[in-house]
């Protein structure tokens, strides 16, 4: 894969970009991903398939520092910049990259060691200093850079400019009549999401229902005007956050015991929103990021 732009950002927020002073020697190869296949014994020929789990993704970045200035102080400055950002103590790293086709992605990676900067004329001279970065990804997926947003329930504007006012007044907006929304996961794997409930007036016990499985995620909670509740269904990051006047509070205990933290399957996912009271006062938005095994 050819990447036109690569940016590495560590856990402290420090970053380094490849393109001018730091340049890749080879392409950005993320194709080396193995899987662990589990079988169980069978009374018939062969075995019974159980499941497949992706292994961690390991890859190297071979690069060189282009010596625009041959003075020793300049190359030492660039080395310090490299070591400051690419420090394994500041894992995990986020690597953002743009492909030759213009698509943007990122991957979360852990630096396995400090940058290697070998010596010798072939590796270090007046024109360049070669180097190597070695990464291991406990999360093997590649993520689309842009988060997807789907309006499940919202209000639609009903006027445009130039605006003509009449004695009878005008309709500023209307409620979308679609109670069911199709959320399309274009990725290669199930994905968690953020479900955001917003109350325009009083709403009692809002919920979201998966039409295909009939599973539901329900809040036993009364929302007042301008209240927001955000539910994260991401694996390892499940949370329920109540927001009023920009103050955030954990209300995980308000999730109904029969609720399911939905995962989006690849392809179509049909959802319906509902509430015990005030359904017309409820806005529902779902946010998620497509993830891929390769790009």
Task: Spell out the key features of this protein.
single chain; 1 helix; Jelly Rolls; mainly beta; 2 domains; 295 residues; 24 strands; six-stranded antiparallel β-sheet; globular; Elongation Factor Tu (Ef-tu), domain 3; nine-stranded antiparallel β-sheet
Q: How would you portray this structure in words?
A:
The chain is mainly beta and 295 residues long. The protein folds into two domains: 3-144, Beta Barrel (Elongation Factor Tu (Ef-tu), domain 3); 148-292, Jelly Rolls (Sandwich), CATH 2.60.120. 5% of the residues lie in helices and 47% in strands. The protein has one helix and 24 strands. Strands 1, 2, 3, 6, 7, 8, 9, 10 and 24 form a nine-stranded antiparallel beta sheet that branches. The protein has a six-stranded antiparallel beta sheet with strand order 11-23-15-19-20-21, with no helix packed on it. Strands 14, 16, 17, 18 and 22 form a five-stranded antiparallel beta sheet that branches. The protein is globular, with a radius of gyration of 25 Å.
Structural Rg: 25 Å
What gap, in angstroms, lies between the N and C termini?
Answer: 8 Å
Secondary-structure content class:
mainly beta
H/E series, N to C? Answer: EEEEEEHEEEEEEEEEEEEEEEEEE
CATH class label of the largest domain: Mainly Beta
Low-confidence stretches: none
Given the C-alpha coordinates, what overall shape results? Answer: globular
β-strand number: 24
The main pleated sheet reads as: 9 strands, antiparallel
What number of domains? 2
Binned, the helix content reads: under 10%
Tell me the CATH architecture of the largest domain. Answer: Sandwich
């Amino acid at each position: 894969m050819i990447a036109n732009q690569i940016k590495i950002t560590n856990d402290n927020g420090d970053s380094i970009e490849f393109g001018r002073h730091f340049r890749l020697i080879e392409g950005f190869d993320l194709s080396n991903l193995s899987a662990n296949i589990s079988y169980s014994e069978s009374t018939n020929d062969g075995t019974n398939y159980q499941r497949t789990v992706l292994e961690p993704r390991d890859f190297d970045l071979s690069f060189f520092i282009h010596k625009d200035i041959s003075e020793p102080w300049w190359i030492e400055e660039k080395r310090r910049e490299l070591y400051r950002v690419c420090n394994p103590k500041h894992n995990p790293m986020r690597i953002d990259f743009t492909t030759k086709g213009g698509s943007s992605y990122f991957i979360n990676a852990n630096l396995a060691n400090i940058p290697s900067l070998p010596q010798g004329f072939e590796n270090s001279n007046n024109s360049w200093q070669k180097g190597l970065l070695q990464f291991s990804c406990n999360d093997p997926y590649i993520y689309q850079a842009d988060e997807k947003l789907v309006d499940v329930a919202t209000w639609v504007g009903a006027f445009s400019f130039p605006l003509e006012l009449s004695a009878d007044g005008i309709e500023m907006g209307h409620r979308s009549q679609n109670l069911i929304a199709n959320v399309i996961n274009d990725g290669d794997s199930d994905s968690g999401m953020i479900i955001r409930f917003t109350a325009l007036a009083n709403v009692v016990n809002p919920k979201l229902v998966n039409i295909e499985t009939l599973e539901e995620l329900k809040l036993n909670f009364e929302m007042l005007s301008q209240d927001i509740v955000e539910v994260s269904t991401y694996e390892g990051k499940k949370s329920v956050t109540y927001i009023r006047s920009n103050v955030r509070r954990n209300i995980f205990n308000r999730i109904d015991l029969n609720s399911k933290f939905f995962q989006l399957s690849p392809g179509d996912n049909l959802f319906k929103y509902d509430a015990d009271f005030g359904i017309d006062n409820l806005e529902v938005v779902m946010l998620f990021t497509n993830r891929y095994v390769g790009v």
